[in-house]
Structure formats: structure tokens, C-alpha cells
Design goal:
Blueprint lengths: L5 E2 L9 H12 L16 H18 L5 E6 L2 H20 L9 E6 L2 H13 L3 E7 L27 E5 L1 E2 L4 E2 L10 H4 L15 E4 L17 E5 L10 E6 L6 H6 L11 H6 L9 H17 L1 H25 L4 E3 L11 E6 L4 H11 L2 E2 L10 E4 L6 H18 L1
Parallel strand pairs: 1-13, 3-4, 3-5, 5-8, 8-9
Antiparallel strand pairs: 2-10, 6-7, 9-10, 11-12, 12-14
Helix pairs in contact: 1-8, 2-8, 3-4, 8-9, 9-11, 10-11
The structure holds 4'-deoxy-4'-aminopyridoxal-5'-phosphate.
4'-deoxy-4'-aminopyridoxal-5'-phosphate binds next to helix 3.
Keywords: Aminotransferase, Transferase
Protein name: Phosphoserine aminotransferase
Organism: Pluteus cervinus
Length: 410
């Protein structure tokens, strides 16, 4: 254990130590079967148990209502960028068969690189009119950065759209929606019919990318979402597994929609295939599922989402406070997202001023066993990811280093 670094990587990222110990035993012999977890059949009784427990843990902790199902796939968040468009355009076709593609709107709220990628994929796939209902770069300080969550008056939704899409936490820029319903940036609260009379359909196709905030705190208005998706590789497990929480009206017969002119949907991207196949229509990511299940069990034992939600606030506050001290002392640090603009609890992103200072910061961190701090290549700087497996003590260790660094740079 002593030789392990503190991994602040954005994903894949740190996982709980006890889970890794148990998983390493299971690599040789899973659950007394004499077969390792990487080798056992996904259709075995023992593995079936893993899947059903994993599902129950998600349902229980997030309080998923009976209107929604939990599905898994292997395509990552990126796979969902495509799946969402195809499945929800098929749904729209079945609801409104005679509209032309120009009359089918897919509304995207763009607040960072990931929601932009999702909107770009929707444009690439065609079949509808992709409308960027808000682009946060327009309300940014410099006119070109994703550095804020626009206030509600900025969103312009279409009437009966096929998709209303947002990314709850933008991992690259470190901007996240607020969960406080009284806040002007608490997006899902804003999206209910009473808030927007133009959204007349009783079942809004509200889609949320929760890749980097899934299971870090409760999901507000979960029941009002059509699809919530997340890659496992941040808070809950190794890469290779994607979790979707899908409202049942979004599990549609894509072949029937294709007969009416919708795009054919590759079988493995269709929610109906996953649903009908009880999440094993083909071979799932067995190790990822298994380890993710262990992580969720561990979370439950530690106090569940309530506990981790509070812990996230504490860790983020400590790091943002250290960042502020560095800003105040000679501008050594420079936070990219200002307080009140949707600063993420999961990814703290900042720059370091001064010739060669960023490299010095990273080198010093490396020497102390603090890893994964380099910002995303598209924005540079430093990114501190504070997913569930990072303890308050881990955050303290980083904060101490940040303070020492600021002193040394004076
Ligand atoms: N959305 C968000 C918010 C992400 O952080 C990521 C990956 N880091 C993705 C989507 C893409 O996910 P994947 O790599 O699983 O395709």
C-alpha cells in the first residue's frame, strides 16, 4: 500500500484500496468457483448474481423509480453520444411519423468539450435538426472559454424536441450544474413543463451525461430524465462499462421506426436489445461490472450518496480554498472557473503563472507521489480530480503541497 501514489487522474482514476485487494483475489478464484473473474462465463449463475446485485445497488442508492430501467453497455460515454440520437430519433419518429428531419429538433445545452462532442455527433448522424440552445462560450469572460453555466434566461428550447441534452459535469473544463433548485443554474429543475410551456410533451426527452459525477451525489429530478448515462471509469470502477438509466418510453422498437423512415439502428446500440437481453445480449465487460459492484457495496457501507456528496463538498472546498490562497499571493495560481459560475466539485481546473511554473508544480507533485494532475491537453494547466476514492486526507496532502509551492514561488 505504501508504494501507491495518490492518483488525481480524471479517468480512469483511483479506486478504493479494499476493493482492489478483494478484486485481486477474485482474479485467481472468484467466489469459490475455482475460476477467475476474468475467465468466468457471463452466463454463469455466479456472474448473474453480480449483475443483479450491481443493478440493485444502483437502484437503491439513486432511488431509481419503477418507470426507469438500468442498462449497461460497453461503448463508453462516446457510444451513448450516438445511441441517444438514434434511439430518441426512433422514438420521435414513432410519436410523430410525418415530420421531416428539419422539423425534428435535437436541443443541446453546450457547456464544455463533452457536450460539444455530443452535439457534433448528433450533427454527424443527421436525421434531425441539431440546435445548440445555449453555448456557454457566449457568456464567458473572454468570449471563447467554457467557463460558466449560463443562467436560465439564456436557454431557448424547441417545441417537442426529440432530445434535450446536457452534461452535468464537464470533466475537461471543470464546470458543473448546481443542485440547488433556487439557483439560476440548477438546470434539471428548470426543464419541467411548468418552467417551459413550449415543452408540451408530458415526457420530456431530457438526457444527461453524468460520466464524471455519477454516484458522487444524488441526482436531482432523476425521474424526469429520459436517459442518464455514465462511463464507470470515474467514481465507480474500471473503464469498459457504461451505465444507462433509461425511462421505459425510450425503449422503442427501432425496427418499426425504421419502417417509417427513421435511420436503422445498429443492434447493439438499441436500448431495446439491451433491455430484451436483460443486459447480457452479448458478452458484457465482466471485470468492470464485478469491480464496479464491489465499489458500490463499499460506498453503501460507508454511508452511500449522502456521505459521498458531503465528502465531495469538503474536499472541493479545501482545494478551492488553497487555489484562492495561491491567487491572492502574487497570483501564483489562477482558477479557470470563478465561484458562482458552476465550479465543479469533481474536477478543479487552474493555471499556474510564471515561467516554467507549471512544469515545476507537476515535478514537485510527482516527487511527492501526487499523480494525474496535468490538465486536459485541450486546455492545459492543472486539473485535480476528486472522485469518491480520494479521501479527505488525500485532498489535505495536495493542499499542503499547493501551499508550499505558493510559498516557494514567492
Ligand atoms: N462525457 C464526459 C463528461 C466525460 O468525462 C467523458 C470521458 N472522460 C466522456 C463523455 C467520454 O466517455 P468515454 O471515454 O467513456 O467514451
Amino acid at each position: 500500500a505504501e508504494s501507491r501514489a495518490i492518483n488525481f487522474g480524471a479517468g480512469p482514476c483511483a479506486l478504493p484500496h479494499s476493493v482492489l485487494e478483494e478484486a485481486s483475489k477474485s482474479l485467481l478464484n472468484f467466489n469459490g468457483t475455482g475460476i477467475g473473474i476474468a475467465e468466468i462465463s457471463h452466463r454463469s449463475k455466479e456472474f448473474g448474481q453480480v449483475i443483479s446485485e450491481f443493478e440493485s445497488l444502483i437502484r437503491e442508492q439513486l432511488q431509481v423509480p419503477s418507470t426507469h430501467v438500468v442498462l449497461f453497455s460497453q461503448g463508453g460515454g462516446t457510444g451513448q453520444f450516438s445511441s441517444i440520437v438514434l434511439n430518441l430519433l426512433a422514438r420521435h419518429r414513432l410519436l410523430y411519423p410525418s415530420l421531416s428531419p428539419e422539423e425534428r429538433y435535437l436541443d443541446y445545452v453546450v457547456t464544455g468539450s463533452w457536450s460539444k462532442s455530443a452535439a457534433d455527433e448528433a450533427k454527424r448522424l443527421g436525421g434531425g435538426n441539431v440546435k445548440v440552445v445555449v453555448d456557454s462560450r457566449e457568456s464567458s469572460k473572454d468570449g471563447k472559454s467554457f467557463d460558466n453555466i449560463p443562467t436560465h434566461d439564456k436557454y431557448e428550447f424547441s417545441k417537442n424536441p426529440a432530445v434535450v441534452y446536457y452534461c452535468e459535469n464537464e470533466t475537461v473544463q471543470g464546470v458543473q450544474f448546481d443542485v440547488d433548485p433556487s439557483s439560476s443554474t440548477s438546470f434539471p429543475y428548470h426543464l419541467l413543463p411548468k418552467d417551459d410551456p413550449d415543452l408540451t410533451s408530458p415526457l420530456i426527452p431530457l438526457v444527461a451525461d453524468y460520466s464524471s459525477s455519477f454516484m458522487s451525489r444524488p441526482i436531482p429530478r432523476l425521474a424526469d430524465h429520459a436517459v442518464i448515462f455514465a462511463g464507470a471509469q470515474k467514481n465507480i470502477g474500471p473503464a469498459g462499462l457504461t451505465v444507462m438509466i433509461v425511462r421505459k418510453d425510450c425503449i422503442v422498437d427501432v425496427d418499426a421506426a425504421a419502417k417509417l423512415g427513421a435511420a436503422p439502428v445498429p443492434k447493439i446500440l438499441s436500448y431495446k436489445t439491451l433491455y430484451d437481453g436483460k443486459n447480457v445480449p452479448n458478452t458484457p465487460a465482466t471485470i468492470s461490472l464485478y469491480i464496479s459492484k464491489l465499489v458500490l457495496q463499499d460506498m453503501k457501507e460507508k454511508g452511500g450518496l449522502q456521505y459521498f456528496g458531503e465528502l465531495s463538498k469538503i474536499k472541493a472546498k479545501k482545494v478551492y480554498d488553497a487555489l484562492k490562497r495561491g491567487e491572492d499571493k502574487g497570483g501564483v495560481f489562477e482558477g479557470k472557473i470563478k465561484e458562482g459560475n458552476g465550479r465543479s466539485l469533481m474536477n478543479v481546473v487552474f493555471g499556474i503563472n510564471g515561467e516554467g511554473a507549471e512544469a515545476r508544480f507537476l515535478e514537485g507533485a510527482e516527487r511527492r507521489g501526487l499523480k494525474g494532475l496535468k490538465g486536459h491537453r485541450s486546455v492545459g494547466g492543472i486539473r485535480v480530480s476528486l472522485y469518491n476514492a480520494l479521501s479527505e486526507k488525500d485532498a489535505d496532502t495536495l493542499v499542503q503541497y499547493m501551499d508550499e509551492f505558493v510559498e516557494a514561488e514567492q
